[in-house]
Amino acid sequence: MATVEHCLCCFEALVAYHERRKPMSLSEIELSWVEYINTIDENNDDRDDDDDDDNEEEVTVSSKAPQIPALRRLAAATLPSSTTSSSTSLATSTSTSTSTSSSNTTLQSGISTPATSIASSASPAPPTPVHESPLFVTWNVVRDSDDDVSLRGCIGTFESQPLSSGLPSYALTSALQDTRFHPISRAELPSLQVAVTLLTDFETTADAMDWELGKHGLRISFVYRGRRYGATYLPDVAPEQGWTKEETVVSLMRKAGWEGNKSRWREVELRVVRYQGRKETLGYEEYKAWRDWVDGKRAE
After folding, report:
1. 127-179 residue pLDDT tens
2. Which ranges constitute the DSSP H helices of the chain?
3. pTM
4. Would you place residue 81 in the very low, low, confident or very high pLDDT band (cuts 50, 70, 90)?
5. SS3 of 62, please?
6. How far is CA 113 from the centre of its chain?
7. How far apart are the first and last CA of the chain?
8. Which residues contact residue 21 at a Cβ distance below 8 angstroms, ignoring those fewer than 6 apart?
């Protein structure tokens, strides 16, 4: 599934582009993120210890580990389960299921009950790291609250990409080359949210209605009056728009450029591929706090 580090990689690529510097690689980001959340963990332990001693002055958390709520949430979602004393003091909700307004995406060629008390306390196996995947990068503008977002760019590919190169590449492509929008400027960075969706479980289906709302994305292709059409919607699009399955399919055909009578859409022979998506989102404030920590470490 997509991770916080994948989102950081996208922000890092776009910010570095505007700052005219070399971005950190995905592997560098992954290593620094582990150290960063461990620093947050240690500082939270220090705070907990200080709360137990009424005679000591309140400990101020180092600027190397900013304690904004969103970062504590992300750290809680990433910390190993063995760090129970500190991770329980963090918020436990993750941003994996956060909705983003990615209803208009652009396509480029190119997932028991414990038998004993011991089993119930055992930590689940960590997810297998993903190194290559089809992917989409979505940029949104956030206004007032996380619920008020508007699409700013979305481009992806169904061809499996090495994430180390695919993420920064599509981060820039979706930010700067989505023809529906003007390129994202440096001044817009503080208002941005990024969503990374890694695509999985592709299945061809003979019935355009053989898919589940909120679970599957759709990719359709068809020929109408000698012309080829194709388009896709990510899994979260239909629920965000409040569409039925039929409304989703018709809208997707319209998106592809079909101008036929919508009441006769079933007469068009569609090739339908359903798929699933593993998404993670991140706001600029969260990226900036991590990046400031990185710069502070380098300055030491």
Report:
1. 678 899 999 999 999 987 666 889 999 999 999 999 999 999 999 999 999 99
2. 4-19, 26-51, 69-78, 84-87, 117-121, 163-176, 237-241, 245-256, 284-299
3. 0.76
4. very low
5. coil
6. 30
7. 34
8. none
